[in-house]
């Protein structure tokens, strides 16, 4: 009994930081509709800044003052980020802003490394709250008790702000109907900035507040991100009480999991999440997404056309040059080209899903890593020939995608995206924690291809054929009735359903197909590297694909491949620098601001303007001339 | 698909108004029928115990002030909404609560008050989509969609006068053109019943008359039965065979143009009859 209560208290105490970060994310999303991937980074900044302030400021006042100041400082940083990075891209297509926030993650990560160094920092103890007290014989840290009191106070203050003040009225109005804010005579831009700053400040506060428990380290940003997404999804996007309740549930489940099921704590959390969403698809306190709420911003997409002769020739020439690589390139360049090809296929598979069906997956690495693990597990545990394992990789990933897609497609929009993330994390935690089978953190090694393929050049050709073949196959499908049906469901669900198209089924099959293609890339990957580790399935890998798809241009057929090739190539050069994340992050932010339609989309527009391509504008001009 | 007993159709709007058009003998079995159809949104009863039938080859108008429940009624007819109570029968089959896809396959097509088309496709491809679905080709991945059922699509577009715009990007169409495109889409599977929710909204008066004439022709030539809602009373009186008036979810009158014009309850709803009808027109135009 004592242990039970002690653990309950620890769980509730842990919920504090989680709630603050999650409520910030939720607020920001509710008002600005931005999914702030960088929220974990602000949490990390809070911890580091709080740490430094605690070194400077003495005593109890200093300690608590440092926490408060850290929150404020992070709020100010958030404000700057909003003004400099996000404001220019509010008009960009849906979810494009999250690419910018991803750039912020990279920049913050390297700046933190520069300023505070690579060592983990041990958090200072709170003055006067160093020891433990005994509850029914069980030790409970005093600081946990303090958190138990502080968290509800912060929650209440926040509730008061939202429910009882004029600012709160505006925030609620904006959450329900963004256009209304303008009608209330408020500068929307500054409301967004204010809310973003508040949300980031809360994250910073959370980061500083957990210092005595967890300290500060450079992995904090991604580590909390998953938990925060889980909390926000369980609680319901945009709901503060939901965030609180969900933070408590997750923290308590986690603490008890550590005691009773140490091997599967992570899995447990995602199982809870999936269960909640099965019963309440929009979270405990969420409301269903209103159709069109996140409707298309920016220009509508253009009709798609098969590539013209010029483009075809260009692509053919490109492929020929690539195919001749072994004649003029080193073995290293072939390895590099293989890497890029595989990544292109992976990104193209996500692009297929996002570009055609409009479904944004935050967890596409599950199928890439999934394919890799299917092949690796078969090789490791059954001594099957490589060829069989290789064929089973896309099939396994495709089936997995069908199962996961079936559940996720109960939701739409951001909720769908969050659920795909949750499932990806569930798979990742399975792989990570089920060490006997998957090797856990040590991964699976010695997964080499069959003898006839065990040569850099031969494998390069295999990758070349399969990746380009796969990409062309997806392009073909995009032009087929099935590809059109995916777009139809995205453009107008009402019309599609009213003309006999089962939108959910079409999307489900599209999700499975995209998963299968990612699995093919994963299969190629594992045999090219000879090993696979859990990080091939983690959030960062999913984000990689997401980012290049956005940067390439979602609304263009070639966007995925072009984005992937550009950034994989760039990465190869940039990673030679010490602070490459900083450079890459700034580059991403730059592209986001200058080319809001992605590389291909913007290039096309420029080309149209220059008169190289017959675009809508030229067509219109021609029509006008003819009419005159 | 021709029906034995559809009412005489007129050649022009003026002529239509002078004629009384309700003399159509009641068919023994209506194409579409509702019984006690009711929809409540929480406490608000948007459609309240509505029973009516649509006869074969009939052009039936459903009118009523804003918020009367017309669109809600349409949504229950095709399955976009499930009724709280009551039933919908299509050609003798109970289709209550059936999803729109199934109802569509059974021969019901519709247009929406807020147009629903595929913005990223061309005008032609919009119609081709419906044809592909009709021919069960949606899941095929071999052929190029852009070439499938192209001629049929062009023929449908020709019918609504949009064949010359087949290659245009749907997103750049004028509102009236979108409405006509929707009509072509709705006709793609040769429906027995066509539901049109404010088909002429956003059109110029001349365009409205042309569209309604076109609709009357379609009724005549294809044997389609049409139920439509409309705010423009001239259009309604000129083109419908029969009119039903909905107010706060309840059917308060039904009959030919003459009867509706003279019905005191209808006049009350429209606050004093003819003048307000005229005002509505002005507001709408
Ligand atoms: N999904 C919904 N939830 C709640 N109330 C609704 C919903 N849809 C419609 N209503 C309400 O039901 C009533 C009838 O709406 P409906 O759209 O059917 O009217 P209408 O006759 O089509 O009006 P209009 O001429 O403006 O198109 C209105 O009061 C409307 O606010
Ligand atoms: Mg309506």
What does the model show?
The complex is a heterodimer of chains A (628) and B (285). The model of chain A is unreliable at 291-297 (pLDDT under 50). Helices cover 74% and strands 2% of the residues of chain A. With 628 residues, chain A is mostly helical. The longest helix of chain A has 31 residues, at 2-32. In chain A, strands 1-2 form a two-stranded antiparallel ribbon. Chain A has helices spanning 2-32, 39-56, 59-86, 97-116, 142-164, 166-176, 178-183, 188-209, 211-214, 220-235, 240-260, 265-279, 309-323, 325-328, 331-357, 365-382, 386-408, 413-433, 435-438, 456-479, 481-491, 493-497, 503-529, 539-552, 559-574, 580-594, 598-610, 616-627; strands at residues 132-135, 138-141, 444-445, 531-532. Chain A is globular and about 75 Å long. The longest helix of chain B has 18 residues, at 205-222. Chain B is an alpha/beta fold. Mean pLDDT of chain B is 84; it is low at 1-27 and 272-285. The A-B interface holds A 296, 300-306, 476-477, 479-485, 487-488, 490-492, 494-502, 506, 509, 616 and B 78, 80, 99-101, 104-105, 109-110, 112, 116-122, 125, 129-130, 132-134, 137-146, 148, 169-172, 185, 188-189. Bound molecules: adenosine-5'-triphosphate and magnesium ion. Residues 70-71, 113, 197 of chain B line the site of magnesium ion.
Which secondary structure elements does this structure contain, and how are they paired or packed?
The complex is a heterodimer of chains A (628) and B (285).
Chain A: H1 2-32, H2 39-56, H3 59-86, H4 97-116, E1 132-135, E2 138-141, H5 142-164, H6 166-176, H7 178-183, H8 188-209, H9 211-214, H10 220-235, H11 240-260, H12 265-279, H13 309-323, H14 325-328, H15 331-357, H16 365-382, H17 386-408, H18 413-433, H19 435-438, E3 444-445, H20 456-479, H21 481-491, H22 493-497, H23 503-529, E4 531-532, H24 539-552, H25 559-574, H26 580-594, H27 598-610, H28 616-627
Antiparallel strand pairs in A: 1-2, 3-4
Helix pairs in contact in A: 1-5, 1-6, 1-8, 1-10, 1-11, 2-3, 2-4, 2-8, 2-10, 3-8, 4-26, 5-6, 10-11, 10-12, 10-18, 11-12, 12-18, 15-20, 15-23, 15-24, 15-25, 16-17, 16-18, 16-23, 17-23, 20-21, 20-23, 21-23, 24-25, 24-27
Chain B: H1 13-18, E1 32-41, E2 44-54, E3 59-63, H2 70-78, E4 85-90, E5 93-94, H3 100-105, E6 108-111, H4 123-134, H5 150-159, H6 175-186, E7 193-197, H7 205-222, E8 225-229, H8 233-239, E9 242-247, E10 250-255, H9 257-262, H10 264-269, H11 274-284
Parallel strand pairs in B: 3-8, 3-9, 6-7, 7-8
Antiparallel strand pairs in B: 1-2, 1-4, 4-5, 9-10
Helix pairs in contact in B: 4-5, 4-6
The structure holds adenosine-5'-triphosphate and magnesium ion.
